[in-house]
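Final report, closing paragraph on structural work. Over the funding period we assembled a curated collection of sequence-structure pairs, and we close with a single example.
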Amino acid sequence: MILPQKEKLSKYHQIYVSFLIQNFRVHFRMTYVIGDIHGMLDECLLLLDEIHRHHANTSGTITIFAVGDLVDRGPQTAKTIEFLADKSNGIRSVQGNHDTWFCACMKEMSSSKPPKLIYDWLRQGGMETLASYVPEHLIKKIISDDSPALFDLIASHIPEHHISFLKQLPLMLENDVCIVTHALCTPRYYALLKQYDQKKIPEYIQLFVQWNRDAPDAPISREKIHISGHTPVQNALLFEKTNAINIDTGAVFGGKLSAVCVETLEVLSVDAKSHQFVQIRLTIR
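Its predicted structure, as stored:
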């Protein structure tokens, strides 16, 4: 359900919208979707605390999704994956392009193939990821040594269960109120995703739903809100005509780590610089 901005409503309707929000909180399951985490575990834990406080007055259950890009750029990828791989925390994530990239590079490091893919990844946040796993003296050697032996040694520091966890992440998650993909999807690609087993999705579909930055021209669902990340925005962005939300508020670039409560469209955020909770609203486009 899309609720309009309160300032556009009469005083009576503002009270009514507030009543609806409170009614959802008390009686229904609440669904929260977290933006791109990118190895920012401290901010993720603070945001989870805020999510559970927000849900505390609800008698219903809680569902927490994440839009992927769990790794790279930030300083705590190893700890982030260790935390998220523990299913007891209740978070389910889709696979982002950086998650896929990380897994591909670990495979390359154990082969004799040319390291171009690896160096491209290192320049796009992979160096910070390796620094969370690998001793500093080995990180420094990467600059001047591209021998298979070095790459194999580096790969040996990455726990296999971390790679297995990232590989098994689906490209889409869905419940009765929302559809979650890493990048913005379209009706065509949503239909294609639903046709395939999640483990056998063709590469061209995977590339689109992990890398697309173009806003959809039509909603992928009339009944559910489509939530994605991938493209950093200053404030969470609602594409009103297509029922889609971008929740990546650029935590790893000094912005905020945010989550949207799907049932109420309230946005919860932690500022990456101050580690303080900040109140933001959806920007409507």
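The chain has a mean pLDDT of 88. The radius of gyration is 20 Å. We thank the funder for supporting this effort.
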